[in-house]
Amino acid sequence: MSRPRHHLTRRLLTATTAAGLILLSGCGIEERIVHLQPAPTEAAEVGAPLRIEAAEQIAARVLGEVAAASSTEEVQAAATGPAVRVIGARGISSGSTTAAVTVQPTPTILAVSAGGDWPRAILAATLDETTQVQSLHILVSTAASERFKLYATAPLLGGTAIPALGDFSDGAAFAVATTEEKIAASDLFTDYGSAITFPKPAKVDTVAIEDAYATSLNRNAKIQADALGDLGKVAQTHALVADSVASFATADGGFVALGQMVRTDKVALSDKAKELKIQDGTLQRLSGKKVVTKEFTADSLENLILVAPKGSPAHIVGAEEITLRAEGT
Hints:
Helices cover 22% and strands 32% of the residues. It is of the alpha+beta class. The radius of gyration is 21 Å and the shape is globular.
């Protein structure tokens, strides 16, 4: 099945007053090809939990099954955890029951988890030759009797790169968060969300916010707030999905991580505003509203890739935004 486009889409809202109309536009990210560091090559069969050929076959099988899935049951048979969440969200946003992952025939294997214990994980990259967007995928097997499933998947931003992950035969340290236990990357995603909150962001030194996603969000939130003026207020907050975070150690002692947050956008109208017209079709469908008179709220899944170099601030190298739900009064 084909994959719908889920880069940051334009949202148009219109606040009506006696004086006229105000157009509020959302944010957008240009989808471009990015450049990955060359995948590590496997040495002779010494110490590697998986040989690269086996990892390639597993990744091709799993991603192929996800891409071919035409029902919720088929998605759940090939994917788990955050991947099921993002695939389901893509389906909600597009109005279909599922929305799968389009992959190239042979995924590039970047790393496998070190050691022979479970969970065992594979980090792979693919290129969508139609959109020229590259994506990272984490595949996980939780036990010797369990097949690998797609655990996490997210697209890279244009102009970004993934650092080298060391020698393939050594494997790379893999960590995964749960709802009860954080990993190092969890706090960095939380810090990032705090730093891009609008209108009162927190000051953090652990994460940089000069990436295309943060820049776009901030710019467009300001445009919307300025356009509303005294007719209402715009607010954006970001909440980490605790069990969505997984990371692989990089050769420089840092890590690359995939994680998810839920962003809440809220427009609260003042007494001076007559109404807010919802012009975006997806927001209309999810909220069941074309006009509100008090407030409008939309939640979006932020599907992110973060790189944390050792000794330097972390930064976002991948981002995808998918509308989950919307409501208004």
